[in-house]
Amino acid sequence: MRGIMLCDGQLAENVDDATLQAQMARHYAGFKGKPPLCLCTDIHVRMYIAKFGERYLLKRWPGSGHEHAVVCDRYEAPPEASGLGKLMGSAIREDMLTGDIELKLGFPLKKQPRTAITADSVEAQGQESDLNESAAGSTSKVSLRAVLHYLWDQAELTHWKPGMKNKRNWWVVQSRLLDAAARMTTKGLRLQKRLYIPEPFKPEAKDQIRLRRRGFFQSVASQKAARELLMFLFEVKEISPSPYGYKLVAKNVPDDNFYLTADLYKLLRKRFATELEMFERADGQCHLVALGTISVKPSGIVNIEEMTLMATTGDWIPVADQQEAVVVDYSVTTGRQFIKPLKYNMGAGRALAAMLYTDTPGQPTALYIVKPDDSDVLIEARRELQDAGRSLSVEWHVSDDPIPTLVIDAIPSARFERDMAKA
Q1: How far is it, in rounded angstroms, from Cα 236 to Cα 317?
Q2: Cα–chain-centroid distance for residue 308?
Q3: Which one of 59, 92, 100, 224 is most buried, by most CB atoms within 10 A?
Q4: CA distance 232 to 258
Q5: What are the structural domains, with CATH classification, of the chain?
Q6: Smallest Cα–Cα separation from 308: which of 289, 294, 281?
Q7: For residue 144, what are the contacts with CB-CB under 8 A and spacing of at least 6?
Q8: What's the pLDDT tens digit per position in 343-391?
């Protein structure tokens, strides 16, 4: 990365925060119609400056992240490399003056009376046999899964560099997610005001933590049939039977439970069988992340209304199944740099790379997992994506090689080539 050129000719590079804020303030006041430029490539990629509270933020121009050099901190995967591209500009809109991001939710934040649990109570994963009519597959609204994926992307928890090993814990994850949520709104309300993400638990501060949490929950507590809902995002510790049906215990929340009905739990087991099996068999090497909506009774009982689940590796990198987990873990172990593409609202018949390596010379390299039971529709969609993509691509055929080491080792690494040149 070679810095940012502002429109008054100044370079926003290697300066302290106060100087950078002053430079961006002058640009914001005097050059709103002229974007600053990132000098990471010869084409000089457009950026923009937004004002968030009293601070100025230098942000990627919407849809231009893939135009940055792969080695630039501002590089993002091209729109077709994940499910995000279909949602930008419609379900997800970015205000280029404030930097705010508006989300059009495909699920309610107000509880309505209902007589039975339906498939809508569990987030759709877009299976061809799916019965629900939520936002899965839509481009005009974001599903629960899409919100979770967008938060993970915006917090850059899908990005990995070798120096991050053993440096991601819940404190880092929670802090990044809160920063990402602070820039998002829905129907004029800041998402952060409705989203509960547990703070890291400290035994010596447990009373204060519990008071803050319960105060947040009580802000929507009501006996009314139609009442306001909160959103939650946390790591699942366990789900077990209770007199209320089932109770969910969240990590970092040892003194409160979240309740769900037996019918809702049954739907969870069906819809998220892969994620739950990975979590239950992983012996602590897999995190199970949940995002959903909750209602709160005046008594303090917290009921889960809707829910989606996402499995991650021990380094908090999302994975859809065990094959992806193998690819991610081996890539981390061998010191690769990459972005993990996510599906958002995409259904099961849509092709998506399992990995986008950003340490390859010149341009990124996408890795696709080819399984024996892939449908003809998926095979054709993958071929079209590879033909139209803005990256190189390789395939791991699971039936030919149960471990992808040879495929990944064959992908060139610019870092490795630089190290060899120095030797």
Answers
A1: 16
A2: 13
A3: 92
A4: 10
A5: 4-76 (no CATH), 319-422 (3.40.1350)
A6: 289
A7: 106, 107, 123, 134, 291, 292, 293, 306, 307, 308
A8: 999 987 789 999 999 999 888 999 999 999 999 999 998 998 888 877 8
CA distance 329 to 324: 9
Query: CA angle 330-289-357, nearest 5°?
Result: 30
3-state secondary structure the chain: CCCEECCCCCECCCCCHHHHHHHHHHHHHHCCCCCCEECCCCCCEEEEEEEECCEEEEEECCCCHHHCCCCCCCCCCCHHHCHHHHCECCCEEECCCCCCEEECECCCCEECCCCCCCHHHECCCCCCCCCCCCCCCCCCCECHHHHHHHHHHHCCCCEECHHHCCCCCHHHHHHHHHHHHCCEEECCEEHHHCEECCCCCCHHHHHHHHHHHHHHHHCCCCCCCCEECEEEEEEEEEEEEECCEEEEEECCCCCCCEEECHHHHHHHHHHCHHHHHHHHHCCCCEEEEEEEEEEECCCCCEEEEEEEEEEEECCCCEECCHHHHHHHHHHHHCCCCEECCCCCCCCCCCCCCCEEECCCCCCCEEEEEECCCCCHHHHHHHHHHHHHCCCEEEEEECCCCCCCHHHHHCCCCHHHHHHHHHC
CA distance 123 to 308: 5
HSE-up of 398 (CA within 13 Å, CB side)? 14
Question: Can you say whether residue 421 is alpha, beta or left, with left for phi > 0 and alpha for psi between -120 and 50 degrees?
Answer: alpha
Residues present in the chain in total: 423
Are the beta carbons of 339 and 158 closer than 8 angstroms? yes
Q: What single-letter amino acid sits at 203?
A: P
CA angle (322 as vertex; 340, 105 as ends), nearest 5:
50
Amino acid at 259: Y
The rounded distance, in Å, linking the Cα atoms of 209 and 179 is 19
DSSP strand pairing (45-52 vs 37-38): antiparallel
Q: What is the pLDDT of residues 220-253, one digit of tens each?
A: 887 665 689 999 999 999 999 999 899 999 999 9
